[in-house]
Amino acid sequence: MSHYNFIIERSTIVSDFSSQVKGRIFLITGPSTGSVGAEIALTLSRGYPSTTLLLGRSLPKIQPVIETIDTISPSTVVKFVPLLLTSLASIALPLKTILNDTFIPHIDILIYNAGIMACPYERSEDGLESQWQMNSLSYFLLTNLLLPRRTNNKRLKPHAQSKTTNIIFSVELNRRLAKRGVEGFALHPGAIDTGLARHFALEMLGEKFE
Fold first, then answer.
1. pLDDT in tens, 69-120
2. What would the 3-class secondary structure string for 39-51 be?
3. Domain range spanning residue 166?
4. 139 membership: H or E segment, kind and range
5. Confidence (pTM)
6. Same domain flag for 90 and 42
7. Cα separation of 2 and 116, whole Å?
8. What distance in Å separates the CA atoms of residue 116 and residue 122, rounded to the nearest whole number?
9. Are residues 142 and 160 in the same domain?
10. Of the candidates 80, 86, 41, 74, the residue with the CA atom closest to the CA atom of residue 59
C-alpha cells in the first residue's frame, strides 16, 4: 500500500521525487511568509532546484522566504518578480523580465498559489469580478505569456484555434442560458470572395500537414 496519506510530511515527498526537483526551475506565485506558497518554496529548496522564481506583490513579505532558501540551498538562485494579479495590464511587464533573462532558458514547473477567497464583491480595474480575475483569468493570461512562441510562423492554426473557441463559446452559451431563451450559434459562411482572405496564400495549406 502506498505510504502517501493525509499526514505525510512534505519533505518526504520531495525526498522521494528528488530527481524531479534537483536542477529544475520553479515559478511560484503568492510566496509571502506564512503562506502555502512560502512553504512550497521552502520545502522544494531541500531538493536543490537550480532556480526558484517567487512572484508576488510585496518584496518585504517575501524577503524572509528568500533568505531561508539561501540558508537551506545556497546553490539555488532565487529571484523575486513583482506581480499584481488584480490588474491584467500589470502582468505582461514583469513577465518580460523573466522572458528576457538569459539565465532562465525555460521554466520546468509552474505553481499557482496566490488567490483570494469569499471576499466582498468587488470589481477589478479591468471591470471584472475580483475573485474570478485573480484566481482564474490572470493565470490564464500569465500561462499564455510564458508559453514558447510556437505559432509565430503559423497563420492558419491560430485562425483555426480562434474559431474553435467561438464554437465552444456558443455551445456553452446554449448550455447556460437555454432556460432564459438565449441561443448561441457559430456559423460558417462558406467560401465567399471578400477581403477577409487578403492575407491567405496557397502555400499556407502546407501547415495542415506539418
1. 999 999 999 999 999 999 999 898 888 889 889 999 999 999 999 999 999 9
2. HHHHHHHCCCCCE
3. 156-209
4. helix 138-146
5. 0.77
6. yes
7. 33
8. 12
9. no
10. 80
